[in-house]
Design a protein that fits this description.
By secondary structure, the protein is an alpha/beta fold. Helices cover 41% and strands 18% of the residues. The protein has helices at residues 27-33, 38-49, 55-65, 72-80, 88-97, 110-120, 148-162, 179-184, 195-200, 212-216, and strands at residues 13-16, 101-109, 124-128, 130-133, 136-141, 169-173, 187-191, 203-205. The strands form 2 sheets. A 6-stranded parallel β-sheet has the order 3-2-1-6-7-8, with helices on both faces. α2 (38-49) runs antiparallel to α3. It is globular and about 55 Å long. The two termini are 24 Å apart.
């Protein structure tokens, strides 16, 4: 049950996380599998998403461990591992069909976020840039890092540029770095989220897919765009 005012349910701005929200995996964990260090990387990712580690420091540490990995692993990982979250396309395309703007903002990487955004139908993707040199990952992440502050700044800047009220906005994510943007939205949703994020959000989806966010906005199934 998502309890909210009956007026203003249909949102005009969607800002969404990518990993474990719009797609089913954490890309850095899957990429690490091609380097044979998935377990080591995944443990750090999990701790960072629970809010137990500084996001930027954890990202730098994980990417450093990938130094020397053939850049071809990125394309392989995208093709073999990255899958869209059920309901993602329907959510974004239905909202856009009703006049909303959709922004994907990820603490992951542009090499994944840009194709994912295009496949789902987002207007723009904001993410980190992996350093690549001589056909291999160089172990660095471009600056500035996309983190919780970036996500918050993004939803606020997009809202202002569109001339919207806070009530007109929707944010969804699963990790601790999504909390500020979730709390800044008119409808902030923790999607299959870590405990800290779920506790901080005004709404949480624990079992349904992303079409739950269409029901929350009052869209009947006949209005969905598949």
């Amino acid at each position: 049950m998502v309890v909210q005012p009956s007026l203003g349910r249909v949102k005009k701005l969607l800002v969404a996380d990518m990993d474990s929200t719009m797609i089913t995996v954490e890309c850095i964990d899957e990429l690490a599998d091609y380097a044979g260090i998935k377990a080591e990387i995944a443990a750090v990712t999990e701790a960072a998403m629970r809010g137990e580690l500084d996001f930027a420091e954890a990202l730098d540490a994980r990417v450093a461990l990938l130094r020397g990995l053939d850049a071809g692993a990125i394309d392989r990982c995208r093709a073999e591992r990255v899958r869209l979250m059920p309901g993602a396309v329907t959510l974004v395309r239905t909202m856009k069909a009703h006049g909303a703007r959709a922004v994907l903002v990820s603490g992951g990487f542009t090499v994944f976020a840009e194709p994912v955004a295009a496949a789902i139908g987002f207007d723009v993707a904001i993410a980190n840039r992996l350093g690549i040199a001589d056909g291999a990952l160089d172990g660095t992440v471009g600056r500035p890092i996309v983190d919780a502050a970036t996500k918050l700044a993004t939803i606020e800047a997009e809202r202002v540029s569109l001339g919207l009220e806070v009530a007109d906005t929707l944010a969804v994510g699963d990790g601790a770095n999504d909390i500020p943007m979730i709390q800044a939205a008119g409808l902030g949703v923790a999607y299959h989220a870590k405990p800290r994020t779920a506790a901080a959000a005004g709404a949480r989806i624990d079992y349904g897919d992303l079409t739950a966010l269409l029901w929350a906005q009052g869209f009947s199934r006949g209005a969905w765009v598949a």
